[in-house]
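Quarterly update from the structural biology core.
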Amino acid sequence: MNALFLVCVIAIGSFVFKSGNKSEIPSFLQSASEGLIYFGAGIAFKSASDLAQFGSAICSILDHSQRRNEFQILSHLCNLGAHRAWGQLFKPSSFSNGTPLSLSSWHSNQTELSQIPAGSEEMKRLIGFLETRWLAKANGFFPSMVNWVFPCFNIFLQVHPLTTSCYARDPATLCSQTYTNRVEEWKQSFPFTRDFPLILTRPCNLENYLPFYVNGSKTETALDEASLLKNQSSDSKAIVDLTSIFPDDQKEWNPIWDTFRTEFLEGCKRRDLNPDLIVCIQRIQEGDLGGIRLLPLIPSDSKGTDQHHKYLLEWISRFGFTANQVELDRLQSKPRFTEVKEAFSALGGLIPTFKKEEFISYIDAFEKNWKSTSLEKNLMVQGELNVLKGLLAAVSKEKWDEIIHCPTRSAVLKLSFLKIKEQLEILAEEGDRKTFFDLVLNLEQIHSNFSSLLEILSPFCTSDFASIYHKRLTSIPENLKSLTSCTIHTAAMASLAGILKAVEMTAGEIPRVAFGENTYFENIMIAKRISKTSYVDEIEEGDWGRIDLILAQFDPVLKRLDLDPIEYRVEKIAETVRKALNARQRSLTLAIDCTLDYINSSRIQSLLEEFQKQIDEGALNVVCYRSGLKYDLFGMDNFSGAPLYMIHSKDPKWAAFDHLLTDPAIQTDRLSLNWFCLAYQCAAIQLELYRKVIFENTRSLLNKLPPRLYSDRSDYRIVPIEQGANPGFIDIRIFGPYHQIRGAALVCGSLFTECFEGGHPIFTRRSLGFYHPNFSIIFGKHNSTIRLTVGLDPGQVDLLVKCFEQIDALNGP
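Predicted structure, tokenized:
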């Protein structure tokens, strides 16, 4: 009977965890109360704990100390899980009328926006965008964890209804619900065939970055070019772009496509060309969102269509050309509420004389009275205050007056100011008594309202970023500053795609690329797709003179699972550059990924000082790029950007790199551009300090860990990081039989449970640079690796030390 009861509970719980939202549970499950779920979960955990205790006893008899310790820790973790699940039975529900309390902020914002007048379609789209953007993140949280698990530990996040741990840039790995919804919404607007696959991209032509691209304006020409391209490679597909053959009158779309398809297939037969190796596409665009429709040559071949879709989606995702989160949200053309009200009494009515100086004065007063002994709290609060004041100061009087006289925009301004003031008052009253994590939850609310202000005011344009960022690059030698140009792209992978393209144009052929020991594995994967690549230690002496591009990174990143790193070290980039320059037969470009380095890096400065003569003479071009999503958002993860600067002489041979400054395929969106302009103009000091504190916390943790964890003979081990490197993560490796299960249950379980029990919530998100600790697990054939990133609060360090002492016990006595 107990077993049957437990099976029913687990079935209900599995469905609830999958949905993440109690309101989505079918009616026949509504009778299964929240208490039943937690009670059943407690039984499951307690049963698992008893089984683990039994396993521990068996291992004691067999004198197998390591397995005994593993069972004991598993029992301990399961006991904690049972305690927390049963404890939730006596707490208030985390749902209200079937809606998770984690969505209360989002729904409140939606209700308030619904009271703002929006008399035109443009204003309705604006309100819809602001509603959709509220708390939206490029990489969010698992909804089931937020709604069901976190409340057990008294952790209450406010999230977006479509929050997910999917990475917005990488739908090829896993599509977020937002991405899927936008695809379906857009396809429904097509007046022609709607079942063809659609990929969401940047709002521009990607022809320069698509593999084996052919402009298919004429059938015979397209066939000739496709045949020629396919003779050059056996493992890629030719992309035939048919956009130009379709007229603006969409009624004629189907007959035109049917005629072309028939002629093209007949041409493939004549040329003995396999149509499975050809992907026909049509480029489309709607506002700030681009799309690529796949046009199946053989409609009945669903398997082939799926393969083409997967191939192209993976290419676009890996190269950073997927529509970013902001662009996805802009496709939402109207607000979700059904009626736009003409009155907005809840806001107290519009005040035409509302002056920004009043709010600036309020922020100044708050800043003067804010007191905290916590470095990390001051850092986050000061950074937010700086961008708020900077935004208001950057808006001209003419633009402010124009916005104030627009009923919709001025109402949004007032609403945002009132809500920011409300959160600041909470911080003023109890900010220093709050834990760091709780304080940041208030700042998340302020930051969401700030984002609405940024969308309305938008004081910066594309050309502004270059001058703002250039002023911050104080590590560049004085005589090289005139040779330095700056820009901002949508993602670091898009920056790399642009660099590879420019190198290819400069070389006039497929480029030869060398990558260093710290080059990120995704960067290596991309380079291998479109160039001839070699690891620097494997390049023979006579081949150095033919290298076109060196991909390097001073600070270590997570190694691929097919490698067994002994130690993460600072890469000796200068040594590699010397080898290439001494053997120089062609122009050399050095591309440095600076994501884990400071904006003003002393190592970059030393490198530039050593090679400034070669740069000035035109022998060397240095490009430094970074993923701004990692640290330049204060961990908020709600904009998209990748700052880049390059230093080369005025020699015309470098002209291809000028395209990096203007190519719309890789430039970021307007809203993100405004954030990065503002952040680097007003909060660059705090951004540098933000990095520094995270690196210091990580190093402090590494220095306090049990020495046995660094032994290469341990089943549970940590890869050491050389002193002098900026440690942005901790690499935990698990070896031995069933390493996947042991890593997930014991190591991840220990990290999660102990951190939450200790008041330092830890999450699982596919990125790094967050203000909170975070981990992700990757399963390999021979070992599993867990990447742990430490947050901003130094209080977590001692807690994590205790956690690792527990993990170290898994290695035996």
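The chain has a mean pLDDT of 88.
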